[in-house]
Automatic annotation (TrEMBL):
The keyword Signal does not apply. Coiled coil: none annotated. One of its GO terms (molecular function) is DNA endonuclease activity. This is CRISPR-associated endonuclease Cas1. Pfam families: Cas_Cas1 (PF01867). GO terms for biological process: defense response to virus; maintenance of CRISPR repeat elements.
């Protein structure tokens, strides 16, 4: 059930990437790991998860308590939950941008029999673009000013704290309409 929205999202997104040249067949393909698109999606998700996890720890939230993702021994479920909010504007946006501008090419990937992954040069390109994306300013309506996406991640953690501590009566998620 939870995969249906993702399936619909990627059905619309994947053809755009295929036009640009990176192979992103579908999320539900048995040989998904053999495609460049999955390797950059996975790498981007790991970078985003680690970024969000750092902000969760700094905010003093319990990283093991999640709302969407089940707790797991070696996983900060709350970081995964918050990362889901930011994935479309950070990871997915970067995939489309890097593919469209042809920043990542097939020679930025290494393959073996079972998988495809970014090589060192590809990782360097992806990380540089990821860091630039985190510094990108977006309009933050509650403060009536622009802030960096990295700051928005931190503010989302504090927004959650205010809701949990009942300082706010309802949790109002980030609105990316001004993005």
């Amino acid at each position: 059930i939870a995969r249906q929205p993702l399936r619909n999202y990627y059905k619309k997104t994947v053809p755009i990437c295929l036009i640009g040249g990176l192979g992103i067949p579908t999320l539900f393909n048995d040989v998904l790991a053999a495609f460049e698109g999955n390797s950059i999606l996975s790498f981007g998700n790991v970078l985003l998860y680690n970024t969000v996890r750092s902000e969760v720890y700094r905010s003093a939230l319990d990283p093991l308590v999640g709302f969407l993702h089940e707790p797991h021994e070696n996983r900060a479920s709350l970081a995964l939950d918050i990362a889901e909010i930011f994935r479309p504007i950070i990871v997915d946006n970067l995939i489309l941008r890097l593919d469209h501008k042809k920043n990542l090419l097939t020679n930025h990937f290494d393959r073996d029999e079972m998988k495809c992954y970014l090589n060192q040069k590809g990782k360097k390109i992806w990380i540089k673009q990821f860091k630039e994306r985190l510094r990108t300013s977006i309009r933050y309506t509650p403060l009536k000013r622009n802030i960096a996406i990295q700051e928005e991640i931190k503010l989302e953690c504090y927004n959650l704290i205010k809701y949990i501590s009942r300082e706010k009566k309802e949790f109002i998620p980030i609105n990316f309409n001004n993005y």
